[in-house]
Amino acid sequence: MTNPFTPGNGVEPKFLAGREEYLQEFSKSLEASENGLPQNMVVYGLRGTGKTVLARHYRLIAEAEGWAVIERELNGRLSDEGAFGDCFGKDIAAKASEISVKARVAETGKALIRTLKPESLTAYGITYKPYYEEPKRILSDYLEEILMGNWPVFQKAGKKGVVLVYDEMHSLRDAKEDKQYTLSSLLESIAHVQRKGARYYLCACGLPNLKTNLKGAKTYTERMFHFQQVGNLQEGEARKALVEPARREGFAFEDALVSQIIGETDGYPYFLQFYGYYLLEDSGKNRISSADFKAMRPGLLERLDKSFFEDRFELASASERKILLAMAKSGSGDVPLSDVKKATEIDDNSFQQMFGRLAEKGLVYRVGRGRYSFTIPLFKDYLKRIN
Ligand SMILES: Nc1ncnc2c1ncn2[C@@H]1O[C@H](COP(=O)(O)OP(=O)(O)OP(=O)(O)O)[C@@H](O)[C@H]1O
Ligand SMILES: [Mg+2]
User: Fold this and answer.
1) For a FRET experiment, which of 104, 120, 296, 325 has its CA 20 to 30 Å from that of 249?
2) pTM for the full predicted model
3) ∠ CA(17), CA(224), CA(130), 5° rounding?
4) Are 50 and 269 in contact (CB under 8 A)?
5) Residue whose C-alpha is closest to residue 39's, from 50, 55, 28
6) What is the number of domains present in the chain?
7) Is 273 in the pocket of ligand 1 (CB under 6 A)?
């Protein structure tokens, strides 16, 4: 019997709970795109809710439907126009060459080339010139040229379109003060080429501030994207997420225990996987009761703190931690910043700076005017535990 639970980063669960509607919505939107209506998707949610896992399923669906898929995990460095331009040009050209080589091999029955050098790319109809070789070039023009230029290659190879799956996309931002308009350039170029009939589809996954960033970059993003919020699983689905993988491997949790775990984890996918995994691991039994859990609970929480929360908390400096702890104390739900400011007694200027850094580090995000929340589920409980 092997342990069927999968706590981790982007690790495929043995049972994908509660995502049927998401998958259907994605499939439908691909279909609408095929029928000529430009589509894009935003998948947003807190840490560990299953965005990366969902994105992989989207990839599989898209490929099965005859689309090409380009995946990339973004990071803050790519908010630099130059870095993004280079990376984008290479990604599109690499996929276009892969697709066209595959198509040619299928046609002729033999491999024509092993690796494509940039010089030989044009021979295959591929548009590619590194962005850095084009000084002062406006980024959106460059992106558009790459997208439009390579579209016929995808089309000729029989692809219905190209899905760009960008994970951690909340880290891509415009920095107007540094004249970096990376996010708006990307949105603009995608919208333009879609209007011209080139079937690209952007699937952007990230923390909830992704939504705010998109809106800040282009006012039309609300019309450009479908928005899928990924969160904790409803009771019935959370139950399946625990019971199903266990059952398939010959394990069982007592009913009352399942309810208890769902209550404690609030149905968050990562925590469900974590609890499931360590309950099986540590008990050494194949039927686990509430009494077993009771005995194991302190150890389990300690491990959860060490493996999940502590690293995140340590991202914050000593004074930023004061803010986090004050946020945790200030009642449930979203926190009004004014309350936290009052509680910490940090002067206004430093407070704003520190808070900005916490948001940059991806620990907090803006929920509404002057109201903030943690990006990590159950972080508040952790902060209370250690305080
Ligand atoms: N629908 C689901 N049912 C059961 N378990 C799931 C589901 N989705 C994700 N998981 C599990 O939850 C954990 C987190 O998944 P994933 O890494 O995709 O989250 P994420 O939202 O991308 O997190 P982050 O914001 O940190 O990147 C993994 O252990 C995964 O196996
Ligand atoms: Mg992820």
Assistant:
1) 296
2) 0.93
3) 100
4) yes
5) 28
6) 3
7) yes
Q: CB of 274 within 8 A of CB of 304?
A: yes
Give yes or no for residue 369 having a pLDDT over 90: no
Domain boundary among 312, 336, 367: 312
Q: Is residue 21 in a domain?
A: no
Cβ contact 375:211 at 8 Å = no
Report phi then psi at 118, rounded to 5: -50, -40
- For ligand 1, the distance from its centroid to the CA atom of residue 241, given in whole angstroms, is 11
Ligand 1: residue of 12, 53, 207, 374 to mutate (most ligand atoms within 8 A of CB) is 53
* Residue type present at position 165: V
Cβ of residue 163 lying under 6 Å from some atom of ligand 1: no
**307: which DSSP letter?**
I
Give the number of the atom of ligand 1 that is nearest the alpha carbon of residue 12. Answer: 31
**Structural domain for 300, as ranges:** 235-312
Do both 242 and 185 map to the same domain? no
Q: From the CB of residue 84, how many other CB atoms can be counted at a distance below 10 Å?
A: 23
